[in-house]
Amino acid sequence: xxxxxxxxxxxxxxxxxxxxxxxxxxxxxxxxxxxxxxxxxxxxxxxxxxxxxxxxxxxxxxxxxxxxxxxxxxxxxxxxxxxxxxxxxxxxxxxxxxxxxxxxxxxxxxxxxxxxxxxxxxxxxxxxxxxxxxxxxxxxxxxxxxxxxxxxxxxxxxxxxxxxxxxxxxxxxxxxxxxxxxxxxxxxxxxxxxxxxxxxxxxxxxxxxxxxxxxxxxxxxxxxxxxxxxxxxxxxxxxxxxxxxxxxxxxxxxxxxxxxxxxxxxxxxxxxxxxxxxxxxxxxxxxxxxxxxxxxxxxxxxxxxxxxxxxxxxxxxxxxxxxxxxxxxxxxxxxxxxxxxxxxxxxxxxxxxxxxxxxxxxxxxxxxxxxxxxxxxxxxxxxxxxxxxxxxxxxxxxxxxxxxxxxxxxxxxxxxxxxxxxxxxxxxxxxxxxxxxxxxxxxxxxxxxxxxxxxxxxxxxxxxxxxxxxxxxxxxxxxxxxxxxxxxxxxxxxxxxxxxxxxx
Length: 504
Fold this sequence. Notes:
- With 504 residues, the chain is of the alpha/beta class.
- The chain folds into 2 domains: 22-41 and 216-416, no CATH class; 58-212 and 428-495, Alpha/Beta hydrolase fold, catalytic domain (Rossmann fold).
- Helices cover 43% and strands 11% of the residues.
- It has 18 helices and 10 strands.
- The strands form 2 sheets. Strands 1-2-4-3-5-6-9-10 form an 8-stranded mixed sheet, sandwiched between helices. A two-stranded parallel ribbon has the order 7-8.
- α3 (114-122) links the parallel β3 (94-98) and β4.
- α1 crosses α10 and α7 (220-232) crosses α8 (235-253).
- The longest helix is centred in the middle third of the chain and has 20 residues, at 275-294.
């Protein structure tokens, strides 16, 4: 799931204490439940032939340097990974799935995944690699800004390089083992970048819905989301959302924010004079419906939202949207926090064991603010969410969470640096296969066309993000089945250009 959408989940479910404005009390347990619910949407569908004696992913830890680029710093830390080696035979490949922004678990390389299936077919050893600062891969004692300076793509790729060397020497004990690196979203980008930066260690890469191109103002995201809504929902649904958001804006402008408090299950009143708070409210409204339609990776969710809105008995489009928001989005959490100060306080927490830091949300936001951007705004006129969520909202959010050193210029320079270092839309890739879902709004920042004969791309029709990660299944649409067959053939050829696998 998109990182900025997970940040949105934090923003709309940040916890307050006590009863606010006579609304039901925001509940920590319910908020955590909602976050976990969306974090754990099933990417991998169970296979029909699930084996009760299936291989079990084993948790392990690997020791590496805290700072790979400071020779005077010899401190070390332990990185978490999972492994499935039941099918490994000498000469087989090392297959590594990268966790990206989020914690890994045994399900990351479980039997319902395509990389597990590749391990079976290629007699390979399969590993799940957790990025530093996420999950149980804790580099420092806390998540202070000073410590988070050690969190960036360059350090993660250096960790991975040391990890590959370790696997070859100490685990499979084969210095000549071929290595595939794979991942989705940021993990997919890391796989492609590893192949570029460390081609002697990563012999092939598979990038599923990879976030390849850093963008500060990701205004195209909501445009593309709107197109998917029209195609898989309806034009009427798009129009109703457009009207609802513009009516909400008009009420704010007319000084009638009290009507929004009455209609929407939010915890506190909106101050029309507080631009940051107004932007925050509209970001909640926008991302609630985007998360709902994208979180399951199921296009049927677009239809569900549109059925709820267009078949509503409500008198107005805004009333219909408020009814959907209160019953489908906010039903489990008492009331939705509408004061950005509370979200900022949650994001400023430095301790590892808080619910949101365990999920990696402060860490992911730090990387967005200092490397990648990907902030979904309403700065485009060609989307249905009005015009109140500007790039200045995210700049201010980053500043309040991490400090005054973050500015519009610092984020813009960070985004340029990421694209300059890794290639952005034109990476110098080879022996890499890029896959994307045709209905996924994030394809805009991925690679959707062949770069060279051995850096190929496919867009799978009528699919959302990372649809190719699950094991092959007869239940998959034909286009998805074909994409997986093609992917497996490409990766076999890239890993083993000669026999036995590359010519199979």
